[in-house]
Amino acid sequence: MPTYADPEGGRALPAAELLDWTTTVLQRFETPADIAADVAEVLVAADRRAIASHGTARLPQYVALIEAGAMDPAARPERLRSKAAIGLFDAHNGWGHHASRVAMDAAIEGAAEMGSYTAVVRASNHFGIAGWYALRAADAGLIGISMTNSSPLVAATRGIDPVLGTNPLAVAAPAGTAGHFCLDMATSTITRGKVEVASRRGEELQPGWALDKEGRPTTDPAAAFEGALLPLGGVEETGGHKGYGLTLLVDILTGVLGGSTAAPLIIPLFSTQGGAADLGQVFMAIDPEAIDEPGAFEARLQQELKLLTGSRTAPDAPDRILIPGEPETAAERRSDERGVVMDLGHHQDLVEIGGRAGVPFPATTPIGG
Fold first, then answer.
1. Which listed residue (126, 180, 346, 347) is catalytic?
2. Is 180 a catalytic residue?
3. Contact partners, residue 212, CB within 8 Å, separation at least 6
4. Is 265 exposed, middle or buried (CB count within 10 Å of its CB: 0-12, 13-18, 19+)?
């Protein structure tokens, strides 16, 4: 489970102010108001959940894509075809966040009618945190699943070249008084965004996360950028072949199934050259009440999580056993109490983007350090 610490010399801003500012800035870069609202909501949700690698820190990269003509900020997704409980959407190279919200809402609507629904998206872009879409279904009382392929950054087991994406997968489900179960994970040891955060903050990576360009293990973020990340589990001897299989599975269910580009042919992450990203994404919603009594699934899941979290802990464990998603939910509460926390590099990037857009970044409060 991740733990979150305040960055050295961090700054804090109320989430509502960050949301309003982000929405306004996106509109200055040719994004329609309703699409900007979707994108801003997903980005600020990542910041509130302390997933700094996928929040508003990405704004400079998104803006660069728009300015280079590599992404169409005004494009709207279109449902191309459907049959029973599955549909295919074309994002038309628009904002991944908006196309994904539309697709997940279609899955939620379809599940209400048919018990389950799968929405497949092609020709999309980076969509932020996978968990936001899964949680949207859980908020509706459903089991939600979301996944995306991404640029090749991960070496296959026994290889050293980056040939697969970090390909995140998220599953969320309502669990009564226990809140929501929310597994939101990359299928690699770490995301590239976290490597960027470590580089920005002058931190080293954990051993077993990455390889340098010669295939040697490295803890240096700069060397990892030139080399490759490892699949979940690390090397073959520690189960990395299972993470490799998961990474490939997500690529099959997204890029291959939807007819988008699949790894290793996807262009580099946030590249402004070489054309559109053409990512594939999948969103699923399952209604437990289609096969059970109302509330029965939630009650059973609540009981299971209670038994798990109440079991014995290891002697060196820092705290009790946690539910997947619980640290992020705690981070949300902290953000709502004192504001979204950002490191100095993140803060400076937003100040500069705001200056370019003619939307000054709001005053922040020093925190940490």
1. 126
2. no
3. 218, 220, 223, 224, 226, 227
4. exposed
